[in-house]
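Q: Okay, next protein. This is Cobalamin biosynthesis protein CobD from Pseudomonas cavernicola. I've checked the sequence twice, so it should be correct. Can you predict the 3D structure?
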Amino acid sequence: MSIALLSVAGVALDAVLGEPKSWHPLVAFGRLADALERRFNRPFAPPLAEGDVHNQMRHEDIGRGWRSHGVTAWVLAVLPLTLMAYLLSLLPTVGWLVEVLALYAAIGLKSLAEHAEPVARALRQDDLPEARKRVGYMVSRQTAELDHEAVARAATESVLENGSDAVYAALFWFVLLGAPGVVLYRLSNTLDAMWGYRNARFERFGWAAARIDDVLNYLPARLVALTYALLGKTRLALHCWRTQAPTWDSPNAGPVMAAGAGALGVALGGPAVYHGVLHQRPRLGEGPAAGAETIERAVSLVRRGVLLWLLILLVGGRLYA
């Protein structure tokens, strides 16, 4: 079966079934990642006192050790399962089914809408406490004091960014490398979400997970930004991508969210509180403040982009058959 038809089958399966309700393979993988982190992410020396030059070289060696342990944990978590996916995809008769199921398990298009739509519905009903609670399931920022606009802005940003991470990038790596590609990507992205923090616990250990995820998302993110631009306010989206993306702290989220905000013709970004700390984030996009309808338009933008990708795959497959 062609990669285009396999892609359509995987996306269709997600549209019909959504995420598995009783058990999801990524939940089991999360437990494995937690066990590996407990095993490998251990401090090996106390922090240096100010002016302690004598132990500086030894302390820097230990720091490099933390990074190497993060690489080891990443390899143990990701590569055996990627190899397993590759071997299973080679099985006669059922290899195609393994491919479809791998994409289905990795993609999260229906789940994205299932999380975003209740936020929009609560905002339309002026139920701000419910909207805050629902958007809290989508974002890592503090939501207890968000107003109507801030809730809508947070949900819209999440749809645009997670559309890239959880939908398009998974599809990209599936098209490029099949089941092992999508498994490699999804597991790497999950480890970045678990380990890729810039704090005392993960700054060194999670460095590899964060950098690998940046590399794997580099091309997909820019294709997503282009997709958003083509399906929305194209000129404004391209302008925002060019001028605003470099101001964002993430090399991949910047293009996606700037182009997405421009495509929707809405203002996103701005201040947000993460773990009790206020972050003054740059503004993204141009236009009116976000509202309930902005969330719904963002979901529609992601869906239409997926349909465009599948159409290109099918047409391309026919042309080169």
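A: Here is a summary of the prediction. The two ends are 12 Å apart (CA to CA). The mean pLDDT is 90.
Q: Noted. On to the next one.
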